[in-house]
Amino acid sequence: MSESSPSIAAAEATVVAAPKHFAEIKLPFAEDPETVFCLRNRDIADWERANDASLMATFRYMVEHRAGRAAHIREFIRLGLIGAGMPPVEAMRAVIRYVDEYPIADNFSAALAIVEAALYGTDEHRAQIAKAAADA
After folding, report:
1. For the chain, what is the largest distance between any 2 Cα atoms, rounded to a whole number of angstroms?
2. Helices and strands of the chain, counted as H and E runs
3. pTM surpassing 0.90?
4. Which of 114, 107, 109 is nearest to 79 (CA)?
5. 82 domain-assigned
6. Neighbours of 132 (CB within 10 A)
7. Which range marks the domain in which residue 27 is found?
8. pLDDT per residue over 26-59, tens digit each?
9. Residues 118 and 19: beta-carbon distance below 8 Å
10. Are strands 32-37 and 25-29 parallel, antiparallel or unpaired?
11. Using an 8 Å Cβ cutoff, are 119 and 59 in contact?
12. Does 131 fall in a domain?
């Protein structure tokens, strides 16, 4: 059995649990009061290319006008579920059941919260980083 070098052992001793993704957010959705969503940067880039639109500009419009395209609301929720680890087929089933079968306004706030977390991060994530830094 070989021992780790002192520098590796020291590094392992100082490793703290990595904070969750900066955009991870828990919201009530479907039958779960704490469904995890995470709209990741790679998915944002794909969404922007597919829609020929800026996510930040779309978010600003949605906030200022309290309105948005149904397809965008649906897609933000679907991508948020996938980004949080739900398999794409399961995420699509959830969207069909819990977004498509309800009034669009019922999911508007969730879509805004998912996008806001992706653009600006969450207070919880900032607190985790501050705690990890303080504990180091």
Report:
1. 65
2. 7, 2
3. no
4. 114
5. yes
6. 13
7. 23-135
8. 999 999 999 999 999 999 999 999 999 999 999 9
9. no
10. antiparallel
11. yes
12. yes
